[in-house]
Amino acid sequence: MLLGDENGLSYGLKNAFRRSGLLHLLAVSGENVVLLAAGVIAVALAFGLHGAWGHAGAVVAIAAYLLAVGPQPSVIRAAVSGAAISVAWLLGRQRDSWHVLLVAALVLLAWNPYTVYDAGFQLSFVAVIAIFVLGRPLHGLLEGYPLPGTVRSAVAISVACTIATSPILWLQFGQVPLLGVLANVLAEPAMPALLALSFGAAAVDPVSPALARLLAYANGWVAAYIAAVARLVSAVPGAQVTGRNAALAGLTALALLAFAAHRLMRPSSV
Fold first, then answer.
1. What angle do CA 225, 186, 72 make, to 5 degrees?
2. pLDDT digits (tens, 9 = 90+) for 77-135
């Protein structure tokens, strides 16, 4: 999950992540970059350095992380977005999420215009756009329910991403997971701990391999929990649909997106 490398996973476990709607957790995303940049900035501040040194270090760390992981669409999007935020801070410029996303898209398409047809490119950008557009309204709809704020946020983001990416999953793979919201609500809260422990183990290993092994051991339990969620949810009958059912799920998601767009663009009455 730290490097986006799926080669060490068995076919059964990888299929469980796919059927449960958690396959995106195996790809490097913005969450990885945010934690990396935040960690570098926090270390700089802990040593009494000016914030500029922290952001400059974050840019260098993100570039090194990109080289280590490889030029995958989701990685480049996350790396460009994270670096752009730190560069904007260093230059004293305002940071707009849409502008950052546009810069990332332009960089990717300038590097390879045919990336627009890549499933990873489409899923990555559509998911982020869904969070920008639908995340807050969906969170507002859940405010009346007796749920903790973190759960409401997780549900809102999961619903937004699931609806937006379902048509692409249908068109690209002919498969649509139906229990992705449940799986993400259960697994996503563990991801910050997993990534933080992973980065921590990698950082201290050159200095203290024993401490790195201890962090990796603790992280194994976090990873085991996420894998257990994937296996349990994927084992539910109908967790993933294919063929005509996938087409129906994709078309339903398109209808929901059209309805949400209509409601969002409709001027509110005074």
1. 80
2. 777 877 777 777 777 776 777 877 888 888 888 888 888 888 888 888 888 888 888 88
Whether the per-residue pLDDT at 253 is higher than 50: the answer is yes
* 4 belongs to a structural domain: no
Query: How confident is the model over 26-35, as pLDDT tens digits?
Result: 887 777 888 8
Look up the domain containing 146 and give its range.
Answer: 14-259
User: Where is pLDDT greater, at 209 or 247?
Assistant: 209
Backbone angles phi, psi at 147, to 5 degrees: -125, 145
Q: Is residue 266 part of a domain?
A: no
For the chain, the domain total comes to 1
Cα separations (Å) of 13 from 10, 19, 29, 153, 192?
Answer: 5, 10, 20, 27, 21
Helix (H, G, I), strand (E, B) or coil at 177: strand
Say what the pLDDT of residue 269 is.
46
Angle at 41 between CA 79 and CA 69, to 5 degrees: 30
Q: Which of 93, 258, 158 is nearest to 103 (CA)?
A: 93
Q: What is the dihedral of CA 177, 181, 185, 189, to 10 degrees?
A: 60
Q: Letter for the amino acid at 108?
A: L
List the alpha helices (DSSP H) in the chain.
11-20, 30-46, 51-69, 73-91, 97-111, 119-141, 149-173, 180-187, 191-204, 209-234, 243-265
